[in-house]
Write a structure and sequence with these properties.
Belongs to the acylphosphatase family. The chain is of the alpha+beta class. It is built from 2 helices and 5 strands, in the order E-H-E-E-H-E-E. The longest helix has 11 residues.
Length: 92
């Protein structure tokens, strides 16, 4: 499968519940690159890049999130990333 990037925004109770940490774990376990960060409006934003099957797997995981999260909605879009990501990082 080809490499793709997905830009996603996750809303609900997704801050203060280790969402970014577990997203990084999921991404790294699936060989993805990119980043995840909290937004001022309470959402979490992520860029997931890599093998399409792996990206879709982590994208689906975002709808559930970690145990303490309560995900209300995930909005995502396929994008062409102009930045080459070296790993997967949490942006503060």
């Amino acid at each position: 499968m080809a490499d793709i990037c997905v830009h996603a925004w996750v809303s609900g109770r997704v801050q203060g519940v280790w969402f970014r940490h577990f997203t990084r774990e999921q991404a790294q376990a699936n060989g993805l690159t990119g980043w995840v960060r909290n937004l001022d409006d309470g959402r979490v934003e992520a860029m997931l890049c890599g093998d399409e099957k792996a990206v879709r797997h982590v994208e689906a995981w975002l709808s559930q999130g970690p145990e303490l999260a309560n995900v209300a909605e995930v909005v995502s879009e396929d994008v062409v990333s102009e930045t080459r990501h070296e790993g997967f990082e949490i942006i503060d």
